[in-house]
Specification:
The protein has 205 residues and is an all-alpha fold. The protein is built from nine helices and no strands.
């Protein structure tokens, strides 16, 4: 995979990780309730679940492209529609959303379990990954290329939420984010809509 194409992959994976939703709420809740280490545990275990879905998606997309290009295109458009819906939801969210979550008393074991379950218990991640990864998977892609895609998705997801946990462990950060939640949602919404249009446009070269 050319470096420029990998940078595009990293950018769309980061966009997926940063979009507000149950994953952000999970890390926020465990960080506020158990501290930095517990929040980081939730983040890393969530990344493991994301990696499992990314692997399934990459393997499935390769087979689907080879056997049924028309069905692959249809599923890709469905994924783009889902990205667009997420973007609209973010734009309509205003200042509400994951940033309003409160902490609960928790532990590393609970954070680890919930981190995996939130990822694996969200089948919409498959749709999300189909939309994102359809831009990069090809029928003749090598095993190393597929591994690179999965590892990139895992590292970016885990790295982002670890950063969130570290930032939220400082008491001044959360109020600052809450005050600007409407702008965060608006920016995320616009970027998700732009990404949906990019998926419809076709694979990145």
């Amino acid at each position: 995979m050319p470096f420029s194409l990998w940078l595009s992959l990293a950018a769309v994976c980061a966009m997926g990780a940063m979009s507000p939703g149950p994953s952000l709420a999970l890390v926020l809740r465990h960080t506020l309730g158990g501290g930095r280490l517990v929040g980081m545990t939730a983040a890393l275990c969530h990344a493991g679940g994301v990696g499992a879905y990314a692997l399934l998606t990459v393997l499935g997309l390769g087979a689907l492209i080879a056997k049924s290009p028309a069905l692959f295109q249809l599923i890709t458009w469905a994924g783009a529609a889902y990205l667009g819906w997420l973007g609209i939801q973010a734009l309509r969210a205003g200042g509400a959303g994951a940033m309003q979550q409160q902490g609960v008393v928790t532990s590393s074991a609970r954070a680890a379990k919930e981190g995996v379950l939130v990822a694996l218990g969200n089948p919409k991640l498959i749709i999300f990954f189909i939309a994102l990864l359809s831009q990069f998977v090809t029928p003749d892609m090598s095993l190393l290329g597929k591994v690179l895609i999965v590892v990139t998705a895992m590292v970016i997801d885990g790295g982002w939420y670890v950063l969130v946990a570290v930032a939220l462990s400082h008491s001044r950060v959360l109020p600052w984010l809450q005050q600007r939640a409407h702008w965060i949602n608006r920016i995320t919404g616009v970027l998700l809509l732009a990404l949906a249009l990019r998926v419809v446009a076709g694979p990145m070269g």
